[in-house]
From TrEMBL:
Predominant location: membrane
Transmembrane segments annotated in the record for this chain: 72-91, 98-116, 136-159, 180-198, 204-225, 232-250, 265-285
Keyword Signal: no
Entry GO CC: plasma membrane
Pfam families: TauE
Family assignment from sequence similarity: Belongs to the 4-toluene sulfonate uptake permease (TSUP) (TC 2.A.102) family.
Record's protein name: Probable membrane transporter protein
Lineage, broadest ranks: Bacteria, Bacillati, Actinomycetota, Actinomycetes, Micromonosporales
Location of the protein in the cell: Cell membrane; Membrane
Membrane topology, as annotated: Multi-pass membrane protein
NAD as UniProt keyword: no
Amino acid sequence: MRRLLLLALVGLGAQLVDGSLGMAYGVTSTTLLLAIGTNPAAASATVHLAEIGTTLVSGASHWKFGNVDWKVVAKIGIPGAVGAFAGATFLSGLSTETAAPLMSIILLALGLYILVRFTTFGLPKGNLGKPLRKRFLAPLGVVAGFVDSTGGGGWGPVGTPAILASGRLEPRKTIGSIDTSEFLVAVAASLGFFVGIGSENINFTWVAALLIGGVIAAPLAAWLVRHIPPRVLGSAVGGIIILTNIRTLLRSDWIDAPDNVRYTVYAVIYVVWAAALAYSIRAYLANREQERLDLETALASGPTDDEKAATPAP
């Protein structure tokens, strides 16, 4: 019973973070299952089965709050499902330890870009509103879906930073669209695992516990992402990406850093991340106050000559 309660709490916390920042449900939940002795394929299958429910509720919640771009969902979700099914069916037994550090370097670079860009300048607006092309989203979806099913998580960590870095979709819609399209990935991966390993290795009670926690958190996360300012949200996402991928690199065979080195690096990252978030919040509040003063000044000065000329005579 204690283990089931822990799984439910992990599902709740993981979905709260995932629905707010566009990543971490799979990685967090799979890590716990592996820590208690579940084999990798069964752990990934368990998480993806739970994600069918959590992503459905999360997607509906994001849609309700206007956080979803359905064109992006279709362009990235369908290729993502193909990649997830292939990974789960044919490659679930293949270790991704060799590829993980290389992927982490790429994601780390994207995370640094996002953290610096959003913290320093706020939401990039040069490309905002421009369409995201299928030739960009389709390969991204296949790779993210493959990594997600073989690694027990990765749809958000791969998809979210790549779309954010393009500057074409605001953070809340990036996160909402990634979370919504993950439903297709979860269904495809689950089908692939049923074909590859069957259902006998899956503990459906654990699936239910993770699902219940995630379903409870999904609507709250969708509400949060709509109300958190884009500048602050971008800084938060950037920090999560950096921390996650630094952890992967330091624990990989490439580096295999000792505990004292890893904990020191983590502490430095936390301090820098906290400072970046504080700066983003102060800058956002200052900009909002300036906008309020500008509006009051404009109202006090009355209509401009152009506005007077455009006003029809009585």
